Every structure is written in C-alpha cells, then in structure tokens.
C-alpha cells in the first residue's frame, strides 16, 4: 500500500510443518498461507547450510520475511562445506538450489 516508499525490515522465524509427538492441529505447514500475503517473502530452508546462508540474507533484506524451519529437521546432521563456514557466506533469496539432477 506504500508503493515501495516504506521499508519494513523484519524477520519472523519459527518451526513449521509436521513434528514428532504432536496432534494434527499442531502439524500444519503455513508456507502457502504466508506466501499468499502480498509483499511477504517466505523462505523454507532444508539443510543447515541453507539455513545459515539464507538467514543472513533475510536479516539484510529490507522487506518483511517469514523464515520457516521444518521441526522434524531439528537435531539432524548435514554436511557443511568450507565455503559455508566463511563469515561472509550468504545465499541469494529467490534462487533455487538443485540437489538432484533430472534425467
């Protein structure tokens, strides 16, 4: 409604989706619901490397962002590259990561 004249740099971060040991009413995925809100960016990282790089990007973003983490992935181990351990590591928002090549 501000035609881009006002910046709202805020990040909402939290768990999302199915989780172990909770009822159905606590297992919804809200990514599509948040994604239908105009002007709101929604990010859902998969690995710890993705989370690290994308979290840095959303903190620097001038727009409101919802950062949703799959609760079932808490405590999982992922390989982390040396590049991701660099303090300047940041992933671009809006660019997909190919993890499996299509035939």
Automatic annotation (TrEMBL):
GO molecular function, one term: pyruvate dehydrogenase (acetyl-transferring) activity
UniProt keyword annotations, A-Z: Oxidoreductase, Pyruvate, Thiamine pyrophosphate
Entry-linked SUPFAM superfamilies: Thiamin diphosphate-binding fold (THDP-binding) (SSF52518)
One of the Pfam families matching this protein, by short name: Transket_pyr
Keyword Oxidoreductase attached: yes
EC number, as in UniProt: 1.2.4.1
Alphabetical GO biological process terms: pyruvate decarboxylation to acetyl-CoA
Residues covered by the Transketolase-like pyrimidine-binding domain: 1-74
InterPro entries, per the entry: PDHB_mito-type, THDP-binding, Transketolase-like_Pyr-bd
Cofactor(s) listed: thiamine diphosphate
Catalysed transformations (reactions): N(6)-[(R)-lipoyl]-L-lysyl-[protein] + pyruvate + H(+) = N(6)-[(R)-S(8)-acetyldihydrolipoyl]-L-lysyl-[protein] + CO2
The protein's role, per its UniProt record: The pyruvate dehydrogenase complex catalyzes the overall conversion of pyruvate to acetyl-CoA and CO2.
PANTHER family associated with the record: DEHYDROGENASE RELATED, PYRUVATE DEHYDROGENASE E1 COMPONENT SUBUNIT BETA-1, MITOCHONDRIAL
Name of the molecule in the record: Pyruvate dehydrogenase E1 component subunit beta
Organism field: Sesamum indicum (Oriental sesame)
Gene, per the UniProt record: LOC105180062
């Amino acid at each position: 409604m501000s035609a881009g004249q006002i910046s709202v740099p805020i990040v909402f971060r939290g768990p999302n989706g199915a989780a172990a040991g909770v009822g159905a009413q606590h297992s919804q995925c809200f990514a599509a619901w948040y994604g239908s809100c105009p002007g709101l960016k929604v990010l859902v990282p998969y690995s710890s490397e993705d989370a690290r790089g994308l979290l840095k990007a959303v903190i620097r973003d001038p727009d409101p962002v919802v950062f949703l983490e799959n609760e079932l992935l808490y405590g999982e181990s992922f390989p982390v590259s040396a590049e991701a351990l660099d303090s300047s590591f940041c992933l671009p928002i809006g660019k997909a990561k190919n993890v499996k090549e299509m035939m």
